[in-house]
Design a protein that fits this description.
This protein has 138 residues and is α+β, with helices and mostly antiparallel strands. The protein contains 1 helix and 8 strands, in the order E-E-E-E-E-E-E-E-H. Keywords: Membrane, Transmembrane, Transmembrane helix.
């Protein structure tokens, strides 16, 4: 199974681990849809049934961000809107299922994971300058 915890994103404050993102899917059609997905790293694998949504309902799923995901939905046995996308870690995405094949959009980007490293580097450089230039004037 490519999605271990389908209800993880429905929590008010989900704890996503490394290489995970959430997709909130909204069915705006007047019929039920079945959503299928498969990662690119699985060569010639069958698509897996991710979820089935009744008319005007929504759900959220957790996806892995290590490999691009191929995803599509079917309604009344017709395949619609097949696309492939690489998702980013800890992002929150939205997908409105419509007749026009609307793309996945970013609802909420993740915090910058490299910001603490950048701050530590800037602090080190700042204190290094104080020590070096402090010795010159003393």
């Amino acid at each position: 199974m490519i999605f271990e915890n389908l209800r993880k994103c429905l929590a008010s404050n989900p704890n996503l681990i490394y290489d995970e993102a959430c997709i909130n899917i909204v069915n705006t059609l007047n019929s039920s849809v079945t959503i299928f997905g498969q990662y690119d790293e699985c060569h010639k694998c069958n698509f897996q049934n991710l979820t089935t949504l009744e008319s005007t309902l929504n759900t959220s799923i957790v996806v892995n961000t290590r490999s691009p995901l191929q995803i599509y939905y079917t309604s009344e046995e017709n395949e619609h809107c097949r696309f492939k996308q690489l998702f980013y870690e800890h992002y929150y995405y939205g997908w409105n299922i419509t007749e026009k094949c609307s793309p996945v959009y970013i609802k909420e980007p993740a915090d910058n994971a490299y910001l603490p490293i950048l701050m530590a580097f800037c602090g080190t450089v700042f204190f290094w300058h104080i020590v070096v230039y402090g010795k010159i004037y003393i």
